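Chapter summary example.
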Amino acid sequence: MVIGVCTLEMRMYGSASLKQKRQVVQSVLDRVRNEFNVSSAEVDHQDSWQLATLAFACVASDGKYVQGMLQRVVDFVDSKRFNLVLLDYRIELF
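The structure predicted for these 94 residues follows.
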């Protein structure tokens, strides 16, 4: 069994309140969850208007599959126009 965790750090330049930020974050989490069937959550910067750290998790029997799935999640978030800029990401396999 392989567990993969992907952490994305993002900046939302147009956000002027926590309410606006949460709308964008919830949209990203819902769309990724529906598209890839992975677990997702906001894990850091909850009180910041313009920063967000999201985490996605996937479990499978093949490490290459998990790596590929999480890389597709990163590519999906980066390619869609969610009103955010991807600053950094990290994929870890356990």
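To summarize the output: The chain has two helices and four strands.
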